[in-house]
Specification:
By secondary structure, the chain is of the alpha+beta class. The chain has helices at residues 2-24, 49-54, and strands at residues 33-38, 56-58, 63-69, 74-83, 87-89, 92-93, 97-101, 108-109, 115-123, 131-140, 155-162.
């Protein structure tokens, strides 16, 4: 009888814990975050002899992104960039399109896979809410291999987030 009684107590204890979890646990709310991009169309001036000597031409503007928390509490936000075009056309490789953050001096060749631009922890209405930065672009030039042409490509800026 004692073994049966212990077993029943175990069942009732498990059931009590389950009921407490059902009634006390609160549902997880989604962490909603907005990404706004301005200046998304990037243009380059016609390269000059000085640009070819330097090996690149800078875009006239950059793409500015803003990340703003809408709901929830703390989360880690990550901005990534990638090309959605395999090349720039007319035999020019996609890696000749380079990007950098406005607050950094290092240029990166754009690729077909996501490259992290910046990551920040955001606390709604407090830490880094909102935050922004600008991505600048330049085109690598080669006097001997770049044919006179119009080059174009598409890029994608992505926001991803994780909850700590």
């Amino acid at each position: 009888m004692r073994a049966l009684q212990r077993k029943l107590r175990g069942v009732s204890t498990s059931a009590a814990i389950l009921l407490v979890l059902v009634f006390v646990a609160s549902p997880l709310a989604a962490q909603k975050t907005n990404l706004t991009v301005s200046g998304g169309t990037i243009t380059f001036p016609a390269p000059t002899a000085a640009d070819y000597i330097a090996g690149f031409v800078n875009s006239t503007t950059g793409a500015t992104f803003t990340v703003a928390a809408q709901t929830g509490a703390s989360r880690t936000t990550t901005i990534s960039i990638r090309s959605t075009s395999a090349d720039l056309g007319n035999g020019k490789v996609i890696g000749d399109l380079q990007w950098r953050r406005s607050d950094l001096a290092t240029w990166n060749s754009i690729t077909l896979t996501d490259a992290q631009v910046e990551q920040r922890v955001v606390v709604r209405n407090a830490l880094n809410d909102p935050w922004n930065n600008t991505i600048f672009f330049r085109m690598v030039l080669n006097w001997t291999s770049d044919a006179p042409a119009t080059y174009s490509a598409n890029y994608q800026i992505t926001l991803s987030q994780t909850v700590p």
